[in-house]
User: Fold this.
Amino acid sequence: MVTGPPRLRVVGDDVYPDWETIYRENVDRVYRLMFAKVGNRPDAEDLTEEVFLAALRPLRMSASVGEVRAYLLTVARTVLAGYWRRTLGRPVTTLDTEQIEDVFEPARPNGVASARAEMILAALPPRYRQVLELRFLRAYTLKEAAAELGVTVGNVKVLQHRALRQAAVVAEGMRP
Amino acid sequence: MRTRQLRRFVADLLRGRRTRRFAADADEEAYVRTAIELRSAAGDRPSEEFVDALRKRLSAAMEDESAEPVRLTTGRRRFVQAAGMVAGVAAGSAAVGAAAGFTLGQQETLADQGDTLQPNDGQWRTVAASAELPDGGVKPFDLGTVLGFVQRTDGKLRAVSGVCTHLGCRLVLDLPHRQLNCPCHRAAFSVGGQVLRHQLPTQLPPLPRLAVREIDGAIQVFAPHA
Assistant:
């Protein structure tokens, strides 16, 4: 009979020594993953917090690194699904938990996402491509974009909306 | 397509604000997804302030022993309670893991197919009356700390974990085919726990067995305390 608090043990692969190490070594990845899926910092921070709050308590164990990552990703998928159910009522973006190694490889520029963005933009008429590049990739304000494009702020809004609608058609056509 | 709500969503996105709720249709979903895709193309990293503040919040939460465990559910896919999910993932990859209240020693490593999970701090808990499980029958059970399926074949009892050994999704009984289906990645196990099929690039371990007995008209599984 074991006495005292439950102890959890694992044998085999590399393990994390404690929950703080799990957190420290995975928080950057989980955040970047969430940012890629929601596109804004406050929501990405909220979701990252939600993942670790949900995951770490039951993770007070020495599961292997691979198992912990798989588990974090499973929790992240559930958290993301809940976020979209609450906000737009549809699974706008999802997480594929079978791509664990891709997600948890060492931090690097978001190469896959930017390559896909370039492909989407490349398929658009020049004016649409230009306004989306200025606003989304180069973070120009409406006023700055208007000056760059030589139009009014109102025109930038209209152009951006039309460009995004067209980009959505292109992006959907590129989905696997 | 509701232009005003979409423009507001994109404006929030571009200003780095929390986005606001609205009920989107399929066209709007594609629009929003594309906006996110373009916006996040450059990537982003968490600020040091956020990382540090969250570490402190987690530290406080981890010290709060009285807090309830988190239950994770989704609309499309059902997951077992978080602790059980960890146990499933751990056991599934031939390493030994355990949910709270349940310890396994090294000698009980699940290296062999069909090994039996045997908590050394558990109790026999009734999962069905004997009469509820005729020969050839299969019955699911959920004891909170562990869930699974018990079956009687040729008079012999067998109980297996009800958690997929891939990522811990809760298995669903397909009684006509006598198999257990994983709703997440289309894996299937026999009711005895053997892998029938999967589409994963890695080997999928069989379901761990649970110690089971029949006594005084009751079928019992040795499981962690509730």
Notes: DSSP finds four helices and twelve strands in chain B. Residues 66-114 of chain B have pLDDT under 50 and may be disordered. The helical segments of chain B are 3-14, 26-39, 48-63, 82-92. The longest strand of chain B covers residues 122-129.
